[in-house]
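Possible regression after last week's pipeline update?

I re-ran a chain I had predicted before the update to compare outputs. Posting the input and the new output here so someone can diff against the archived version. Not blocking, just want to make sure nothing changed silently.
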Amino acid sequence: MIHVSLQELQKSYRRHKNVWISAAGAQSTPNYSHKMLLFYAVECGLKSYYMKKFRFTMTNQENTEGKNITDFGHKLNELLKNIKEFNLHLPQLEDENKNQISPEDVHQAWRYGKNLNHGQETQFVSILEKILAELDGRI
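New output (post-update):
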């Protein structure tokens, strides 16, 4: 795992967010790549906000429990729970074969072009967008 500064993480958040906003504003439906960048925007945003809240400047700094930001991996629900300011939770999704996809693995499903339950995927994207909105002005 590489470690980055808070400023680098914030830049990544803004970069991914801007691509998502451009894609979502276009007339066509955002594709898997755009949704993946939405996921990464939220991940970078939550990690940035966590670091800012707990006064970390690098991702390898540890909290009082010996945990650093990279320990969260792609577990957005765990980040939301630890930040304690967002009343949002990402649900599991099902793929076309009814296999369960955990929230932290959805970015992989999009990366590999897995077909997901449309209604569940729409709800998941909507929650990611709500988290983005909550992050605005906090980072």
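Follow-up from reviewer: compared with the archived run. The longest helix spans residues 32-53. Marking as no regression found.
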